[in-house]
């Protein structure tokens, strides 16, 4: 073969493989776009929202600028030039929405500032900036509301006026920034760290229970006859197809004090007083396990189905006791299913909040409850993002830890 | 009266993209359920019949996300909405609602002055009141929030709503604070400590509810013996055969509003509908249909004693009521909610 033909061949090969590569890129392009638009983008936006802090700058651009020029920052009340800028910001503001957002942002620093901003904004609304009295802007504002003349307010205003803030992320960990550095918030307001731990604990126990129930169930499904298999599959998938609220309400009917279970036990004479089965942690676990069982069973079933039955027969023909055979032969081969099923259950469970709210007591509140509260009720998306981020980081950490122990490829079902 | 169900309904509504209104029809949106049926019967349908105008109806779960979205997109498809007071205040500040002018709807002149806001006018009055298991306690039941705390005389679990708003007010009332002073006390650190200390006393007996239907179900099932509940929910349960008493004494009274979305293309029609809904006749019909408070003073004055007695806005019921202070809660909600959750989860 001459050198030229070889070269042509190499070129042709490169060309064809490039075409193949292009085709494959083209084929996965929709997926890439999808992942970017619906996964990478929202998560980056969430990251950004957790630290972005534009409200004060948007509503009070002149005041912030005047403050940065002023020499007596921090420890004292600013001079008159700052108050003049403040008056201008109030009178020239066309967008009341910006004022509202800034008022809300300042209120996070100290409840009450919102009223200060909004009442002052209403006072200045529609007044022309030229319409000044004889005294200074400073005294005019302080007469309007003495809070304008407090050191605390200007310290908080300064803190809240930077373009980025650690406020939300710190708050999500029950911390706050003070003049002395970073400190824990007052004991009666420490709520999130406990709640994160509780969320992870509930998710962990639920995944464990799902595994204990799901493992024999999946094994049974593999061995059962075809019609039986269908019946079992239906049983496990049924909760999937029922609405969340209907399912939860049904459990309340079954488990409450005068519910089916308690009435039955009392009529049988087994108990005298109804057992507390719902509106406590027991209720949360039983309902969550019911809902999340398919997430454990289906991956397990998939893996078990591919294990040839003669492996176990071989182990017993070689003299191993069935129990030994199970632990040495069968169990190791199902590890992939255990890993992926449990992890999937754990991740889904960590994001739950409606179910624990409806069937648990106040002790079973999960972090998702607060994320929904900040998103829908108070529209504090910075705080919602920060809490979401904390939850993601925790789940990621556990994912990586599990990856160390079991192997990432096994969890992903690649091996 | 925000609830979990409303939020779920909102999410599902956004995802299914309901509410396809033609561009120029007058669209009115309320909270759905039996309340919306009463609106339909006494407001929407008679309005269509008397004016010949067509109304498009829709329902939503409350909250500002959707209103904010359509106003910022510059193409509001809604015109008149039922809205909670706190949401109305927030939306008004952010410029999402039209300012209400009395010239547009002359009947506003007859509305109770506290129920006319710059961006809305009162739609319904509702309240959180006490009720109890009458089969267990008979006529000799608890009569005030102080009695609510008395678990010796009236044993059994207590139902309270799992949130700081309206619950801390109840705690202060139970501690002997006068209804008029509740928010003055709750605005101080010492007052907040006092409310939580009072809640500590009752803590082992409290069963927290989240949606308006729960306390009545629990009362019927015997899970709780005394509970706080929304007056409309108690009335519905009683229509279905229960006889739970409504203890109006020291009710927590709140108002939902009608507002017009900023940039509405049917400003004239919107005002015409508002005016119709606020007319004495329509208000009287509404009060006869469902026991929620009405706001027209003339209609209130003419109601028969029995109907009036079923409304939270009856003057005798309002005498010792705490009027829900939304301005207070917009300021303090996040702060107190944190403390409340922390306290409740211990």
Q: What is the fourth-level CATH superfamily of the largest domain in chain B?
A: Periplasmic binding protein-like II
Number of domains of chain B: 2
Instruction: Tell me roughly what share of residues is in helical segments of chain A.
Output: over 70%
What gap, in angstroms, lies between the N and C termini of chain B? 27 Å
Counting DSSP H or I runs of 4 or more residues, the number of helices of chain A is 20
Can you tell me the number of structural domains of chain A? 3
CATH architectural type of the largest domain in chain B:
3-Layer(aba) Sandwich
Uncertain segments of chain B are: 1-23
Task: Give a short account of the largest sheet of chain B.
Answer: 10 strands, mixed
Query: What is the N-to-C order of secondary-structure elements of chain A (H for helix, E for strand)?
Result: HHHHHHHHHEEHHHHHHHHHHH
Q: Would you tell me which CATH topology of the largest domain in chain B applies?
A: D-Maltodextrin-Binding Protein, domain 2
CATH topology of the largest domain in chain A: the name is: MetI-like fold
Low-confidence stretches of chain A: none
**Secondary-structure class of chain A:** mainly alpha
**Mean pLDDT across all amino acids of chain A:** 86
CATH hierarchy class name of the largest domain in chain B: Alpha Beta
How many strand segments of chain A?
Answer: 2
Percent strand of chain A equals under 5%
Radius of gyration of chain B (Å): 20 Å
